[in-house]
Design goal:
CATH architecture: Roll
Helix content: 25-40%
Order of helices and strands: HHHEEHEEEE
Number of strands: 6
Mean pLDDT: 85
Strand content: 35-45%
Low-confidence stretches: 1-5
Strand order of the largest sheet: 2-1-6-5-4-3
Structural class: alpha+beta
Largest sheet: 6 strands, mixed
Number of helices: 4
CATH class: Alpha Beta
């Protein structure tokens, strides 16, 4: 496996991921590209559902061995250490709900960059006070296809905005 570009910007400038190596479209080629896009998107969906469920085994199964990440204030480095920090952070919430929104992917046969916007709700209660912390995050995932499965090699999470709403008792 060759070296992967280090940043989202370098991936965006990589002609092998921007379609410059396009082949004539056939029914099989179009079907494969559609399937790859759906499978890449499904990785983002699985990560969101696993986070909400606190299912860190499923979360980690979305990554290759040795994967890394950069989650800003939660840490950067090996994905296992970042998962520990995410799990600890999630402990203060009654629950979360991650909505996977806009998604874009560029890929060739076995390397991809997926960019995804996620809006997260973090529900918490402190005494009589209840709140919904909303977070807008952009993820940039570098993926590889191994043994027919797309998995994340490196994940960057960037918080774009945060809003806290106080909610009335019984809402959560």
């Amino acid at each position: 496996m060759g070296a992967l570009p280090a940043t989202e910007e370098s991936v965006l400038n990589d002609p092998t991921l921007r379609g410059d190596d396009a082949q004539p479209v056939t029914d099989t080629a179009a079907s494969t590209r559609t399937s790859d896009l759906a499978e890449i998107r499904n990785v983002q969906d699985r990560l969101a559902f696993a986070t909400d469920a606190g299912d860190w085994q499923t979360f980690l199964a979305c990554f290759v061995d040795g994967a890394t990440g950069d989650y800003g204030a939660l840490g950067s480095g090996p994905i296992g250490a970042i998962v520990d920090a995410i799990a600890e952070s999630q402990g203060r919430y009654l629950g979360t709900m991650n909505f996977v929104g806009t998604h874009e992917a560029d890929w060739n046969v076995d390397h991809a960059l997926a960019r995804t916007y996620v809006i997260s709700h973090h529900f918490r209660a402190e005494g009589e006070s209840q709140a919904d912390d909303h977070v807008g995050t952009r993820y940039a995932d570098r993926l590889v296809k191994q043994d027919g499965l797309w998995k994340v090699v490196h994940r960057e999470a960037r918080v774009l905005w945060f809003r806290q709403d106080v909610v009335h008792g019984g809402w959560i």
